[in-house]
Amino acid sequence: MSRKIIDMQKQGDAIANKRKKLRLTQAELSHKVGLSRSYIADTEAGQYTLSLNSIYRIAGEFMKDLNFMPNMTEIQDC
After folding, report:
1. What pTM does this model have?
2. What CATH number does the domain containing 47 carry?
3. Which of 27, 37, 51, 76 is the 20 to 30 A CA-CA neighbour of 15?
């Protein structure tokens, strides 16, 4: 049996890359989406997986573009 998961580092890299492309600082993004700057920084560092609510808030700031999210990674259960 396999399941799909989000690779936290890929997710963080994708958010950081999109944020930088839009020339936003972590502080600016956090203010616009109502999340703390440290949460944005920790997510970009691969320490957290975003909730669906947070993904939609960030995607809204990224002009409704959900394509910034990486593909899910398939893993096999042991």
Report:
1. 0.75
2. 1.10.260.40
3. 76
Cβ proximity of 58 and 15 under 8 Å: yes
- Separation of first and last alpha carbons in the chain: 8
In sequence order, which residues have a C-beta less than 8 Å from that of residue 14 and are 6 or more positions away?
68, 69, 70
3-class SS string, the chain: CEEEECCHHHHHHHHHHHHHHCCCCHHHHHHHHCCCHHHHHHHHCCCCCCCHHHHHHHHHHCCCCHHHCCCCEEEECC
The partner residues of 75 in beta bridges, in order of sequence, read: 3
Count structural domains, the chain.
Answer: 1
Domain extent for 27 = 2-76
For 35-55, how does the pLDDT look when each residue is reduced to its tens digit (9 = 90+)? 999 999 999 999 988 888 888
